[in-house]
Model the fold of this input.
Amino acid sequence: MSMQTGLSFEQAPPFALPLRFFLTAPLYLLAAAGLIVLAPAALASRWTPPALALTHALTLGFLAMTMLGALLQMLPVVAGAALPASRGVARSTHFLLAAGTAALMAGFLGAGAHALAAAMILLGCGFAVFLAATAIGLRRAVASATVTGMRLAAISLGLTLILGIALATMRAGWWTPVKDEIFIAAHVVFGLFGWVLLLVIGVAYQVVPMFQITPPYPPRLMRWLAGVMLGLLLLRTMAPLLPAAAGIALFAESGLAAGGLAFALVTLRLQSRRRRKLPDVTLDFWRVGMASLIACVAVWLLARLWPAWAGSDAYPLLLGVLFIGGFAVSVVCGMLYKIVPFLAWFHLQAQLQARAGSIPTMKDMIAERARRWQFRLHLGTCMLLVAATFWPALLAVPAGTTLALSALLLELNLLSAVRRFSRHGGRFS
Done:
């Protein structure tokens, strides 16, 4: 598959717009590591204040920051629809998301209702600006499986935001619903499975064949998977309000598990059939991500068969570590190592009209050895975090330390691509 097939690179935004998101994200990964080291209780129970701060450092500070940057780049290139006022949207969204995430973490860690109120305002405004611009862009977009995934992920992000604001007001003591667990479950489900998983699925349809030189995903899978999974998410959210709630919830969860398993297995099969057999650290990140997604399904299935395991503290923590750290962070790291070098090379090529050999290749933008070391640190972190869900007092600090080293090396690696871009005369805006 040609790298430029069906893509509109002439509509690509300036390098500076997505880059600000990509360079900020590892700093929140570093903040998450600091939380684990300073407050090991973050890995002892999912409801402790450090655990809540850690979760949002990863999901908002790292994952959402990277994903919004990727959408800024992919919407005009893949969907052929530029965001309106893209410079203003990028700058305001980046600032509001960065500040709002910091305020939310502070609120969980004891800064109180004022910090939570600031977080609600900052994050609400930041995501509202981005979602409004995205909605306009997606309305103009050329229909494709990737665009469908983006649309459904954007809907899920909007629902996650609304539910998150409701939960923040509850935590600030402004109101108390009869069944707050329904809001919490819906916020988690739409945030992780709706926003993160559906966006990864939609983006994978484009980037896996393009960057990893694999066959395309099966057309039938691309047609039905994202839509069916959003329907199951809605059913799972409404299940507590319906008759036979337990049976409906089990049906919806089973369907979501089957959908995630199908995506992971198909992706691994496509990667095994890639035409370029050279070692590629990006492929290794994706394989860790897909293996972690499969492990999530296995852990969930074990909980259905063993009620004592389902009621333990370790069960939800292990699911969270596998999904957020093992699956989502792995895949995002893999995408960063393709997207940032590609954008640096592409913008240099477009700005300088350079001859082959006069500018660094994509592969040369970030040293292979440095990428490989960061992958090893990330893999070691994932293993330690999995073990730390069972022995947090013993392993939380080592896990946080390796996560800090991994985050720091990721930031340095991305900056090395930026330095090479600048050294060869590239313009950021």
Observations:
- The CA atoms of residues 384 and 398 lie 7 Å apart.
- The longest helix spans residues 314-352.
